[in-house]
Specification:
Elements (H helix, E strand, L loop, with lengths): L1 H11 L19 H7 L9 H28 L5 H46 L4 E5 L5 E4 L1 H7 L3 H4 L11 H17 L1 E10 L5 E12 L5 E10 L1 H25 L1 H82 L7 H29 L2 H5 L2 H16 L2 E6 L8 H22 L3 E9 L2 E8 L6 H4 L5 H12 L3 E6 L5 E7 L18
Parallel strand pairs: 6-7
Antiparallel strand pairs: 1-2, 1-5, 3-4, 4-5, 7-8, 8-10, 9-10
């Protein structure tokens, strides 16, 4: 019985977990991420070798104790040899089964406690207010808690075993960080290092990192144990503090320079006064020039109108008058022939004369049509602006001998009659200027639309207008075209280079955008 008591006393202590501090080692089959999480948790479960050793001792000592009891029973004549052996075997089986049952129950309880502890530590690990991660010797993530994953915007399977810490850095910071990491593996710890990590969405996460190296029993590096703190708010506060300090310094400088500022403000007021006077004088001169331009433009328009009337009157008198006079004379000759009954009637002579009359009538009709077309082309009313401009280009080529190519990207200009007439007149004036001044051999006309409306572009290969000629205030033709474009709510531009031709550009809204009260601004410089 003393041996059983000793066995019981010694056996009761075998199931008490005794752990001594040991270097971290990597057991066979342990995953890197499981090894890394052990760096952040405590494992109170006794190793399996302890349990196996205790069972082994129990299996050896129990038969010895039972054999001793059988020997005592046989010695005192309590039972025979065969009965003693049977009792010993039954007792050994019963006791060993009870010990195994207690042992496995204890193992299950400890396994449940270990799992609960691991869940608790895992929950603390994942939901801590700071980030945790572990890196292997290459800097690859072995484990990351949920807090850091949320900060970075990655999933666990996107980082662990796939990305390195250096992949989350800006390209210009990676090489220096690799050197720091190599030094860290030698030294074993770093404190309060600042990094700018790149989130999955490309934004920057400023962090403060502390890390410790975990080594095996031989001192070899296994993994890092790092804590990460989001310092975005800290940096924001630093920025605000710096700005507040700068504002305070600026305020102090302003306070100390009040007299200088007052003097500077006075000088500014005087300068503004002088500039205002100069501006008023310039505006007055500009207004006078604009008034002079108006008078000259009005006189020019009157002169052009009178010249046009004189030309039409001259054509009517000289050409139509002569043709009508010849027509009258031929008709009078025929009338006289028909009235002279005493003379023989010559039908062939009368037929020839009537043929001349018909020829004169046709010529007169053509002349009337030409004059009417010059006053206002009928094709503009009948077929629209595009057809009228194409006809004008062909007529210009026929009259001037300058090749004129017309390109239209539109089928219909969608302009009302008055606006179409103004655009056509500007086009006529452009071609007239080309014939008079450009010394060109070819003209290209393009009609299109853009966001601003109708676009008319005319290019020639002539001598090219200079900037001085384009801005010359005495060029009444340009002044008139710009005024027409202004009244249409559009713009007219003219540009060129010496020897490289001239480009005229007219922009007109498709719909009338100018308010009814809009008038030409006399202060506008052309």
């Amino acid at each position: 019985m003393h041996l059983l008591d000793a066995f019981h006393r010694s056996g009761s202590s075998w199931f008490r977990p005794k752990r001594l501090p040991q270097p971290v080692s990597r057991p066979e089959g342990t995953a890197p991420k499981n090894l890394a999480i052990r760096g952040f948790t405590r494992d109170s479960t006794p190793p399996m070798s302890d349990s196996i050793g205790k069972l082994f001792l129990c299996a050896i000592l129990l038969p010895i104790a039972l054999g001793y009891l059988r020997w005592l029973g046989e010695k005192h004549g309590l039972y025979g040899s065969q009965t003693g052996i049977a009792l010993m075997i039954l007792a050994w089986i019963a006791i060993f089964s009870a010990v195994l049952s207690l042992h496995f129950r204890s193992l299950r309880r400890r396994e449940a406690e270990r799992r609960l502890a691991e869940e608790v530590w895992r929950d603390l690990f994942d939901h801590a207010s700071c980030g945790y991660h572990s890196l292997d010797s290459e800097g690859t993530f072995l484990n990351v808690n949920e807090t850091e994953l949320k900060w970075l915007g990655y999933g666990r399977d996107e980082l662990i075993g796939k990305k390195t810490f250096f992949d989350l850095l800006r390209p210009q910071d990676r090489e220096a960080t690799r050197r720091r990491f190599a030094a860290f593996k030698e030294s074993g710890s770093v404190k309060e290092l600042e990094f700018d990590l790149i989130r999955k969405d490309g934004t920057v996460l400023p962090v403060l990192l502390n890390s410790t190296a975990v080594r095996d029993s031989r001192g070899r590096y296994l993994f890092s144990r790092s804590t990460v703190f989001d310092v975005t708010e800290h940096r924001r506060m630093e920025t605000e503090l710096r700005e507040a300090r700068e504002n305070l310094e600026a305020t102090v400088r302003e306070r100390t320079a009040e007299l200088s500022d007052a003097n500077l403000e006075l000088q500014k007021l005087l300068a503004v006064h002088r500039r205002t006077e100069a501006l008023l004088r310039g505006r007055e001169a500009q207004l006078n020039r604009s008034k002079e331009n108006l008078r000259r433009l009005t006189a020019h328009l009157n002169k052009v109108r009178e010249a046009e009337r004189a030309r039409i009157s001259r054509e009517i008198h000289d050409e139509l008058g002569q043709q009508l006079t010849g027509l009258k004379m031929d008709l009078c000759w025929i009338q006289a022939k028909l009235r002279r009954r005493e003379e023989p009637y010559d039908p062939s002579a009368c037929a020839d004369k009537l043929g001349e009359v018909v020829h004169l009538v046709d010529a007169t009709i053509d002349k009337v049509r030409r004059i009417a077309t010059e006053l206002r082309p009928g094709v503009l009313d009948d077929l629209g602006l595009i057809a009228a401009m194409e006809w004008q280009a062909q007529d210009f080529e026929k009259r001037s001998g300058i090749a004129c190519a017309f390109f239209s990207e539109l089928k219909d200009a969608s302009l009302d009659t008055d606006r179409a007439t103004e655009v056509f007149r500007i086009f006529q004036e452009i071609l007239t200027n080309v014939a008079r001044h450009a010394q060109a051999s070819r003209v290209e006309v393009r009609l299109a639309t853009d966001r601003e409306g109708l676009l008319l572009e005319v290019r020639d290969d002539g001598r090219g207008i200079t900037a001085e000629e384009s801005s010359h205030s005495k060029s009444l033709g340009l002044l008139g075209m710009r005024e027409r474009a202004y009244l249409l709510g559009g713009s007219f531009e003219l540009e060129g280079r010496a020897g490289a031709g001239t480009r005229a550009l007219l922009r007109v809204p498709l719909a009338s955008t100018a308010p009814p009260e809009r008038r030409w601004d006399p202060s506008c410089e052309f």
